[in-house]
Amino acid sequence: MKIPACYYMIEPSIAHVTKSDKNNIEVNDRKRILVLGGGFAGIEVLRRLENKFENDFTIDISMVSKDNFFLFTPMLPEVVSGMIETRHIVTPVRAFCKRARFYEATIRSIDFQKRQVTISNEMDIKNEPANWHDHTLDYDYLVIALGGETNFFGMKDVKKYSYTMKSLGDAIVLRNHVIDMLEQVSIEQDGDLRKSLMTFIVVGGGFAGVETVGELNALVRDAVRDFYNDIDIKDIRVVLVNATDKILPEVSSDLSKFTTQKLKESGIEIILENPVSSATASTVKLKDGISMGTRTLIWAGGVTPETIVKELQCEHDKGGRIIVDEYLVVKGFDGVYALGDCASITDKNTGRPYPPTAQNAVEQAKAVARNLISTIRGGNKVSFNYKSRGIMAQIGKRKGVGILFGMKTHGLLAWMIWRTYYLSHLPTLEKKLRVVLDWTIDLFFKPDITRLKIFTENQVNNL
Ligand SMILES: Cc1cc2nc3c(=O)[nH]c(=O)nc-3n(C[C@H](O)[C@H](O)[C@H](O)COP(=O)(O)OP(=O)(O)OC[C@H]3O[C@@H](n4cnc5c(N)ncnc54)[C@H](O)[C@@H]3O)c2cc1C
After folding, report:
1. Whole-angstrom distance, CA of residue 315 vs CA of residue 417
2. What superfamily does domain 4-66+105-148+305-377 belong to in CATH?
3. Interstrand relation of 69-71 and 106-111 (parallel, antiparallel or unpaired)
4. By percentage, how much of the chain surpasses pLDDT 90?
5. Parallel, antiparallel, or unpaired for β 400-404 and 407-410?
6. If you placed Cys at 360, which of 250, 271, 298, 354 could pair as Cys (CB 3.0 to 4.6 Å)?
7. Is 156-302+391-444 assigned to CATH 3.50.50.100?
8. Protein residues with CB under 6 Å of any ligand 1 atom
């Protein structure tokens, strides 16, 4: 529960300006840029602004984000399978901050009229309720890159009983849960209970759902084959449920069919045009009445903007995303930009909004940085017009699908292109090396089925 304890005003970035620089700059000459959200979009904007304004002390740059790291989501499903070690797909935000100031905090409100943002940090005191401190940040230019949260379409029971795949914490919890299910099957004798423990259901036919089901399937089948002699691999049930009639709607129909066929060949059941209607702790019910016993429902059914974004006093699309103009400026608010998953930007090539992908977020970030620099330094703003060079997904061990420069590719080649492409986009050399090492080790060794119980000894004793 939020307990506001203190209120502070913070003067952004002043700490990173040396005293002599600071004295030479009139306060009124300083321009304050505030970037909200340390994901694909926010980090790219930050990097570009820092490069441009590295030695310009009239510009203060600050970033606020909930986590103190940038998460490389395309590799999140591989954390679930254990192919990649948890910390290798995250990079501390401070590693991108040469002069910019970073605040690890939750954004509570944005006031366009006063040009202020309220943020809260949590003071964690051992064994005491959380204590929140509120602070206010002023800005001259604002960049809103707050991504989205999992969309449960109002189904409270599904929200309560499902696992999500959005954050690093989600991947860690899911991995431990899946391994726990296999340990439980080894003990339990009741037939129905064993069946439900061995049934894993993933909902969502987009990239997150398809990549997650591929990795999960590989983890469960490899683990059972290598370690669980008392489980018959034929009893494992991995199911992908999708509300519409095809998976990966972003790719062409034949590539989508190929993906469906390859997932089926690896043992995954696919249920199409049959949305989930309800869930309990041990069952999932579909619209046509089918009920499946399971202890593992993974929800990757889509994203929606956070409430704070939906409630902003500006124009939104039907899904609550902020409508921006061709320069990515929030309509009616000069100097305020929105981009990435939280913004609705019409693609002139298709007439539809750009889909929520990392690739689009990064390209939009380049445009926002360019336009901000032009606004501050003088120059013309450029309208955003990006045509995707391709789209790719990995669908389990050594298999991928994709369209690159208009050419369809699948199988091992697509998987290798996927890996090379995403590896090149990991932010630091250190993380690139660590991921390559993880992938190499995986080629030669059995999966790691260690189940981590993340409690202190004290907590375990009090259970
Ligand atoms: C499992 C998975 C796999 C994916 N695979 C692919 C893929 O293969 N290819 C692809 O192109 N896309 C993929 N995506 C989609 C991609 O991750 C998103 O489109 C991309 O992250 C959007 O970037 P963004 O900067 O808009 O939002 P995000 O990257 O989500 O960043 C939002 C940032 O804002 C912060 N934030 C949000 N609310 C607050 C708040 N109130 N206070 C403080 N901070 C806040 C968050 O902590 C986060 O740092 C995948 C997504 C998932 C979940």
Report:
1. 39
2. FAD/NAD(P)-binding domain (3.50.50.60)
3. unpaired
4. 74
5. antiparallel
6. 354
7. yes
8. 37-42, 64-67, 73-74, 76-77, 106-107, 145-147, 165-166, 207-208, 211, 306, 308, 340-341, 356-359, 361, 393
**Å from CA of 463 to ligand 1 middle:** 35
Sign of CA dihedral 332, 338, 339, 342: negative
pLDDT at 10: 58
Distance 4 CA to ligand 1 centre (A): 28
Query: Distance from the CA of 36 to the center of ligand 1, in angstroms?
Result: 13
Tens of pLDDT along 203-233? 999 989 999 999 999 999 999 999 999 999 9
Boundaries of every domain in the chain: 4-66+105-148+305-377, 156-302+391-444
Out of 35, 73, 108, 389, mutate this one to test ligand 1's pocket (max ligand atoms within 8 Å of CB): namely 73
Assign 3-state DSSP to the chain and report helix, strand, coil percentages, each to 5.
Answer: 40, 25, 35
If you measure from the C-alpha of residue 167 to the centroid of ligand 1, how many angstroms do you get, rounded to a whole number?
A: 9
**Which tokens go with 144?**
């809103």
Predicted confidence band at 369 (pLDDT cuts at 50, 70, 90)? very high
* Residue 18, pLDDT above cutoff 50: no
Tokens linked to 140: 């001259």
CA dist 415 and 397 (Å) reads 9
Among protein residues, the one with the nearest Cα to ligand 1's atom 5 is 74
Q: What is the pLDDT of residues 122-155, one digit of tens each?
A: 887 777 777 889 999 999 999 999 999 999 999 9
| pLDDT for residue 148 | 96
| C-beta separation of 300 from 204 below 8 A | yes
| Position in ligand 1 atom list of the atom nearest CA 107 | 42
